[in-house]
Amino acid sequence: MRVFVVLALVAAAAAWPNLGFQSDAGGESDAQKQHDVNFLLHKIYGEIRDSNLKAKADSFDPEADLSHYSDDGAAVQKLMRDLKDHRLLEQKHWFSLFNPRQRQEALMLFDVFIHCKDWDTFVSNAAYFRQRMNEGEFVYALYVAVIHSPLAEHVVLPPLYEVTPHLFTNSEVIEAAYRAKQTQTPGKFQSSFTGTKKNPEQRVAYFGEDIGMNTHHVTWHMEFPFWWQDSYSHHLDRKGENFFWVHHQLTVRFDAERLSNYLDPVELHWDKPIVQGFAPHTTYKYGGQFPSRPDNVDFEDVDGVARIRDLLIIESRIRDAIAHGYIVDKAGNHIDIMNERGIDVLGDVIESSLYSPNVQYYGALHNTAHIVLGRQSDPHGKYALPPGVLEHFETATRDPSFFRLHKYMDNIFKEHKDSLPPYTVEELTFAGVSVDNIAIEGELETYFEDFEYNLINAVDDTEQIADVDISTYVPRLNHKDFDFKIDVSNNRGEEVLATVRIFAWPHLDNNGIKFTFDEGRWNAIELDKFWVKLSGGANHITRKSSESAVTVPDVPSFETLFEKTKEALGGADSGLKDFESATGIPNRFLIPKGNEQGLQFDLVVAVTDGAADAALDGLHENTEFNHYGSHGKYPDNRPHGYPLDRRVPDERVFEDLPNFGHIQVKVFNHGEHIRHT
Ligand SMILES: [Cu+2]
């Protein structure tokens, strides 16, 4: 699946008027930029291994020529002042985005990057500050800058699990990697999921600990940072709604994985104990082990962060706003949320992001909750433990309480969505268009396979001692290829643009009771969305699972990036175009695991008016949009989840709609595991 970024270039360029596109004209090629970024992120804890970049790091003076910055050097002067005053976090120390001062430092560096007018200034600053700032702060700032700066628009970022492997694998594997390095013995080590079979949660650890899903989650938060201000360069379209949707999808998906594994759905509330403990078996590169939490802990106030009472107060203010149908902004004005854009405001409020209209009153429920839950092992700071897994987007989903926390917030969003009027038959109808048949070609079947990735950046090294191959392999979920076959007839007498939306929800709940349509639609997993031109009469649409717009391919490894960049510097096509965004879920992760008997799903297809839905032209020719991407305008005018996002008091409305189809399918998993050889 290729990505939306490609499609949105024009829009993105237009949205960055104050930045120096022109100054970069005739500048560095995409291949050169890719080369620079590869080396800036390689071996992040040691010396820069590219002589050019190393020279820049040693001799560049960030303040020498301020005309290279679109803010006349304001950001770089600010950062340099703190550097010269030795106020910046040391190197070889953990970094957490949820630590206010550490975040401030990382954003000071981002501020420098985003105001560079040309690549040479960008990359020189990157080399310079990599050598002087905390590694975690540097990696974060550079990733976000490459994602958002027009100077880096074709650069493919390496997989974070190879840049900072500590945050993706477990302590046992890291220790083995160090031993291999010390003894100069190549090694491939098996990563296994945390815990034992005595812990039923381990049955779904393959989900929370999937490195591709972790990459999706951390990348999403880099595309839509909660600290984003439009003054950096551009507005992030529907950021708050996106926040709701991306986590809603993770939440419903986790429950579907639980059903696949005979586990009950999850819940959490502040006045009840956290039933599930968690031992992360994960270590910081610098800073020791991630803290563990025993079972059945009662929530405690966290010194310097929040009292549980504060969270309850914020929650009730938000629930009040939902019941009233409006948010009160800073100035006391009412913002109506009883419409399709209400969810966007509410997302900004609940996260909260800097887009929140009143953070003073509604607080930051999500961000505070992450820290409070992350600190439950040491709420009073008695033991000087480093931040918990929940305080990093890379590691948060490893803790089973992540999904419980998000379910709690998802239920608040549901209250809002349920307060909106249901769609009427008139609104849902696409006159003259009917879905005649839906079928799946190929079986919906998942399996596990071992995936290998490089750990060389986990260990310390010097240029004098040659690298040995050190890698790990980890089981991951994949699925067999399948096609959606959708027959649609168009009796409108002319060609017409249509949107095809495909969802599936589990047929039965954990007690074996059939979900009502209204319960099911809230639990619907989005499988695909695309635009198609329907010619008059019968249309037979085939859509491959690999084409899904909600997914992205695997991020290319460092090794592949180095290879492809070399070829591209020699004049060949880099072949990296398809990998420019890593924000969607991995394509291999498209469907839930299912089980031996076949987990039954309701699969629904809604075909709606494509011209009314499309926010951009040419969507039918361009299957390249990834709807999690942040660049430019979001292509769909409809709310995320449409037309299942609102309450359905009478399911006959849908079942009688000609442009809506509904079948039963089963997802199988026969225990197949393709082992590493
Ligand atoms: Cu998140």
Summarize the model shown.
With 677 residues, this protein is an alpha+beta fold.
Give an overview of the whole structure.
Keywords: Signal. Pfam families: Hemocyanin_C (PF03723), Hemocyanin_M (PF00372), Hemocyanin_N (PF03722). It comes from Penaeus vannamei. The protein is α+β, with helices and mostly antiparallel strands and 677 residues long. The protein folds into 3 domains: 30-155, Hemocyanin, N-terminal domain, CATH 1.20.1370.10; 197-419, Orthogonal Bundle (di-copper center containing domain from catechol oxidase); 425-549 and 591-674, Immunoglobulin-like, CATH 2.60.40. It has helices at residues 4-7, 9-14, 30-41, 51-59, 74-84, 100-114, 119-130, 135-148, 160-163, 171-182, 205-208, 211-223, 239-260, 308-324, 342-351, 359-362, 365-374, 401-419, 425-428, 517-522, 558-569, 610-613, 652-655, and strands spanning 187-190, 326-328, 334-336, 433-441, 445-454, 470-479, 483-490, 496-506, 525-534, 537-544, 551-552, 585-586, 599-609, 660-674. The strands form 4 sheets. It has a 7-stranded mixed sheet. Strands 4-7-10 form a 3-stranded antiparallel sheet, with no helix packed on it. Copper (II) ion is lined by residues 217, 221, 247, 393. Copper (II) ion binds at residues 217, 221, 247, 393.
